[in-house]
Amino acid sequence: MDKLLITGGHPLRGTVRASGAKNAALPILAATLLADAPVQLTNVPRLRDIRTTLELLGRMGACLTQDAADGITVAPAALTSFVAPYELVKTMRASILVLGPLLARYGQADVSLPGGCAIGARPVNVHIDGLRAMGAEITVEGGYIRARAQRLRGARIVMELVSVTGTENLMMAAALAEGETLIENAAREPEVVDLAEFLNTLGAQIEGAGTDRIRIQGVARLGGGAYRIMPDRIETGTFLVAAAMTGGRVRVTDTRPDCLDAVLKKLHATGADITTGADWIELEMGGRRPRAVDIHTAPHPAFPTDMQAQFCALNAMAEGVGTVAETIFENRFMHVPELQRMGADIRIDGHVAVCHGVAQLTAAPVMATDLRASAGLVLAGLVAAGQTLVDRIYHLDRGYETMETKLATLGAQIERRTGTGQV
Ligand SMILES: CC(=O)N[C@H]1[C@@H](OP(=O)(O)OP(=O)(O)OC[C@H]2O[C@@H](n3ccc(=O)[nH]c3=O)[C@H](O)[C@@H]2O)O[C@H](CO)[C@@H](O)[C@@H]1O
Ligand SMILES: C=C(OP(=O)(O)O)C(=O)O
């Protein structure tokens, strides 16, 4: 099992490029199941979750080829299976995203229930309710969602709660349904917009993505096209937090400042100077220690839960006291006990973590428990005194492309230790 060994105390300086967004690439890859002509995707990040998706789609009979750079070509192919098996779904919850496309195009899907994970229970009831409203017959048995439909019918769906992949699944299903679908209380995340733009490139008729009301006029078929995946706003934010914590100066290029308003506002409140261009963001900390900030996670455009662990790490070494309220996932503070092992003074009270910044974190062996928790621990390692060993970084590899290489380019002392299998 791979680990990261980090020697803290080196300010990050320089320029780093943001990769394509994991959370846009995953639904877009699933959406290629809807196309009946070739699709060329670029800016696809090289991540464990992407490899899992390629394996999942490949097992169904889809024909996807990865090119040497950041491209994936999807050739039309007749599927031979409509099953997302447990052994793949358990490693990547986003596998649920094949449910809508399979049902809409092929009228059948058997998708393993994702089950709970480190950050919470994460049920998929709103995906199922929405598809039922469109005429699908769905049973849940033996741990599988078994869905069948002739042709889905457009419907007005008021989502019980704001779900990102729920909105995406329903949008993909509605793209090929008969008639109009209206999704109310839809997620407004930029990745939902990216998926809608991709589907429209293939000939879908989707309006309103990015608002809480998405209108989809179903079409008989979707063709092919070329599409560039949007940049990863969470990876971008993670590098900016790293710059703020280490007192450095980092420019992230090939990114989208307009998707990061809430995060940039909080970084500004830490005392950082931030400048932006059309596709870059630069953070200058000038050797200062950041000030602790209060965070309250909520659906976009509010502060993203996927940046919460990184800001806990920042608050842990910042000046003052910062409270972090997690309102999306019920168990997303798994990084806190590990940060405490590095000397952090954080108390959890229900869904709020109260962080009293300490002047110096100290290195310790720590264990990553989920993707963003891993990122938080890496950031803490960058400023801790001594050598931090972050174990179980397969979580990190789900969502960050060569993170250690990018950080090393910026001056971090970080290296991957390829493991022998023991934990
Ligand atoms: C692949 C992807 O894009 N993942 C992102 C997506 O996850 P994902 O789409 O799984 O997260 P959701 O937006 O669905 O979850 C939001 C909340 O709703 C609950 N819920 C969701 C669906 C449902 O049917 N029933 C239900 O109760 C969840 O347990 C959670 O408490 O959005 C999350 C919230 O921004 C991010 O942290 C993830 O990085
Ligand atoms: C929670 C995340 O991803 P996923 O929904 O794929 O588990 C994340 O990207 O932080």
TrEMBL record:
Q: In which pathway does it act?
A: Cell wall biogenesis; peptidoglycan biosynthesis
**One matching Pfam family, short form?**
EPSP_synthase
Tell me which GO cellular component terms the UniProt record holds: cytoplasm
What reaction is this protein's catalytic activity?
Answer: phosphoenolpyruvate + UDP-N-acetyl-alpha-D-glucosamine = UDP-N-acetyl-3-O-(1-carboxyvinyl)-alpha-D-glucosamine + phosphate
Q: Which Enzyme Commission number(s) are listed?
A: 2.5.1.7
Q: Where in the cell is it found?
A: Cytoplasm
Q: Which residues carry this modification: 2-(S-cysteinyl)pyruvic acid O-phosphothioketal?
A: 117
Q: Which residues bind UDP-N-acetyl-alpha-D-glucosamine?
A: 93, 306, 328
Which residues are the active-site ones? 117
The Enolpyruvate transferase domain covers 7-407
- Please list the residues that bind phosphoenolpyruvate: 22-23
What SUPFAM superfamilies has UniProt attached to this entry? EPT/RTPC-like
What's a GO biological-process term for it?
A: UDP-N-acetylgalactosamine biosynthetic process
Q: Which InterPro entries match?
A: Enolpyruvate_Tfrase_dom, Enolpyruvate_Tfrase_sf, MurA_subfamily, RNA3'P_cycl/enolpyr_Trfase_a/b, UDP_GlcNAc_COvinyl_MurA
Describe the task this protein carries out: Cell wall formation. Adds enolpyruvyl to UDP-N-acetylglucosamine.
Extract the PANTHER family matched here: UDP-N-ACETYLGLUCOSAMINE 1-CARBOXYVINYLTRANSFERASE (PTHR43783:SF1)
Name the family the entry cites. Belongs to the EPSP synthase family. MurA subfamily.
Q: NCBIfam families, alphabetically?
A: murA (TIGR01072), PRK09369.1 (NF006873)
What is the name attached to this protein's record?
A: UDP-N-acetylglucosamine 1-carboxyvinyltransferase
Which species expresses this protein natively?
Allochromatium warmingii
Q: Source gene?
A: murA
